[in-house]
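pasting for the record
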Amino acid sequence: MNTTARAPLARLIVLGIDAASPDLLERWMADGSLPNLVALVARGASSRLKGVEGFFIGSTWPSMYTGTNPAEHGVHYLLELVRGTYALRESVHGDFVQRPAFWRALSDAGQRVAILDVPLTRLERELNGVQIVEWGGHDSLFGFRTRPPTLEREILERFGPHPVGSTCDATNRSPADYAEFAARLERGAASKGQLSRHILAQGGWDLFMQVFTEAHCAGHQCWHLHDTAHPAHDAAAVRAAGNPMRRAYIAIDREIGAIVETEPNAQVVVFSAHSMSHWYGAQFLLHDLLVKLGASVAKPTPRAAASAQVLGALRGVWRHLPTGVRAAIKRARIAFAPPTPVVAPRPAFAADVLRSRCFVHPNGLAVGGIRLNRIGREPNGLLTPGAETEEFVTWLSAALLDIVDERTGHALVKRVTRTATLYQGEHLDLLPDLLVEWSDATATGSTNIADGMNSRIRATSPLIGVVEGANEFGRTGEHRPSGWMVAAGPGITPGTLAMAPALVDLAPTLSAMLGVEDRNASGRVIGELLGR
């Protein structure tokens, strides 16, 4: 009889379910749809997670893996301000995340790590282990890359490209398209599971980390098929595709079970860093609202404004065309139009920044950002720091909160928050100064789905009169900041954690579980996961 102990494949296995809704995880665990998560919760410690308030679009993953807040690591969105200018650039073309990931401390301590498809990460220059970037990621910023480079070819030869591709965004999907999309999400989760087990089988990992991004794609694209109250709910698509979100969650749960089964003696952490629910708000109106309030000045020349008016009228005609007619026109345009080079426009602020007291600072679609044009910080500031700025912020906040959404008769804006009251750090000056949290009391539709049902918003107040527009972005699901986690394995006491940890607590905790102190993180160690 062979009594030789088998070397562990991994000491700590960390699995992310990107943008999975805690409500849906708990609902589908309760009805037995996610048996492997149920098993982990039964023998582990579980909790909701407090997310990154105000910046839960581009900042969630950098906050998770650095254990620091947006003002510390410097990323709040995929566009950033070039310090000391009025210029915008893609964040990946700047310094990007300016604090190290927690696995750097582990690697520097001599521990062997495998980091697979963690969103919004760039390839490490040096790493004691392997890293895969964007083989199956939701956001394609750097493209598929690996360390070592030879791993890229091995993955493509053995597993091929990820079934979902480099982007999951699409518009005007038919019921058959949704059925195929749901099937690709399931194949994507299965492929990630197979790849994970292949890398895991090499053995000797101190940290093994994989993130399933299929839930992220399902939430953005298919929330309206899950949510029967959504204005774009499509019964025909549901009959053809079922509930693609539920299918994706079940497929991910199946692969989590298979991964955990390969190393039953490892500590396991499964988490969702942020959540998903219906698309909401009126970010597409924020610039116009600021202009109507006199806080921003519009940039277009009279000629450009006339062109914009014509274009707006044409868009109105387009929106009222039947879906089949629009699809036929698009096919004809593609078939007969001569090929033209695609040149992406350089990002720029929408307002005339030299004449505006404030302007929209890109921050994603869930929470609007506003930058104050302050003297001494901006190249041509207009607001004097101190009393003048404070009076302006107080007035602007009240004016925004006074705006009514005619669809509901209630406030369009739920809250206006000063970023400096939430975060402090060396990169605070790169973040928007004010955060405009839209009311999510009702779902906002899209002009690209269900004939534009509930996509048009009329905003009214005594100061602005009426400002209206339509959401042309083709998603029906949008993020929320809350997350979820479960940790199980040797030394972890089962039960619900007494206090919900913050997302930034994960990085120092995961390092501490492997006996390494992450001195760069500002989050706290979750003592319950270390038997404290």
